[in-house]
Backbone:
């Protein structure tokens, strides 16, 4: 699964640490999601979508 | 009990107490010591991390899954070689002087060592990638 998390994060001027703090996860988790090593759980995906005010499908794409 | 305390207790039991007691108590044998070491390692692995988010839980699950597969296969093969004559009368503690078989505690010890190594290695990879991809 691909995602636009890094693009959205950078557009807000946030570091990975700051985004991790907002979402209540570790920086390593954000990095793992951005590099495609890990697909977030549904609750986390919803949190991300709410934070960036986008739909989940706009952020995460099934490849 | 705090997770850090559980971790320290696990390390104390597995790495310090069990081996010390093994040599300090006369007549101690590996089965008893290995049970203590297995318990200590399990406390160490299954205690909560300081940051216990879903990625950590995912890595722990993958680590124990891979570790169990490897250690179980290794144990099966090793047991076969150690007990080729299938002598069911052989004393487990090796009192007859023959080979001993691999116990469940040995399997747990091997699994936990591999799982801990894998988990911390993958965690370090995540951290390293984080450091090089800042911003």
Residues:
């Amino acid at each position: 699964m691909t995602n636009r998390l890094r693009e959205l994060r950078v557009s807000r001027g946030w570091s990975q640490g700051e985004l991790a703090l907002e979402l209540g996860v570790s920086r390593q988790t954000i990095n793992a999601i951005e590099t495609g090593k890990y697909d977030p759980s549904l609750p986390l995906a919803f949190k991300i979508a709410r934070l960036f005010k986008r739909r989940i499908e706009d952020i995460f794409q099934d490849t | 009990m705090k997770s850090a305390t559980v971790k320290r207790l696990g390390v104390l039991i597995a790495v310090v107490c069990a081996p010390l007691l093994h040599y300090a108590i006369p007549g101690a044998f590996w089965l008893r010591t290995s049970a203590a070491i297995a318990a200590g390692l399990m406390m160490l692995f299954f205690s909560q991390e300081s940051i216990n988010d879903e990625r950590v839980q995912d890595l722990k699950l993958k680590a124990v899954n891979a570790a169990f597969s490897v250690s179980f296969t290794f144990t099966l093969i090793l047991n076969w070689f150690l007990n080729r004559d299938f002598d069911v009368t052989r004393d487990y503690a090796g009192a007859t002087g023959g080979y001993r078989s691999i116990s469940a505690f040995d399997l747990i010890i091997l699994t936990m060592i591999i799982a801990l190594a894998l988990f911390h290695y993958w965690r370090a990879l995540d951290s390293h990638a984080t450091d090089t991809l800042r911003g």
